[in-house]
């Protein structure tokens, strides 16, 4: 069994197997947020606010924040 790592996602802690990706951490924290990241409706940043790839491998202690993209209505340009 692989050792576990602990990462922070938004306001919570998630324990994952070592070598897990950003997307897996988000899915474990909140499956609906994971779906939004996969669909491109949200993105993930690191502790510095820099966007990270959902496929990026995590290190123990990583800090992630999921940001939901704003949607514009059909008459937003009017």
Tell me what you see in this structure.
The mean pLDDT is 91. This protein has helices spanning 22-29, 31-39, and strands at residues 4-9, 12-17, 42-45, 51-52, 63-68. 22% of the residues lie in helices and 31% in strands. A hairpin with a 5-residue loop joins strand 3 (42-45) and strand 4. Strands 2-1-5-3-4 form a five-stranded mixed sheet, with helices on one face. The protein is globular, with a radius of gyration of 14 Å. The chain is of the alpha+beta class. Helix 1 (22-29) crosses helix 2. It has a single domain, classed as Ubiquitin-like (UB roll) (Roll). It is built from two helices and five strands, in the order ββααβββ.
List keywords for this structure.
globular, 31% strand, Ubiquitin-like (UB roll), alpha+beta, 78 residues
Strand and helix layout:
Elements: E1 4-9, E2 12-17, H1 22-29, H2 31-39, E3 42-45, E4 51-52, E5 63-68
Parallel strand pairs: 1-5
Antiparallel strand pairs: 1-2, 3-4, 3-5
Question: What can be said about this structure in brief?
Answer:
With 78 residues, the chain is α+β, with helices and mostly antiparallel strands. It contains two helices and five strands.
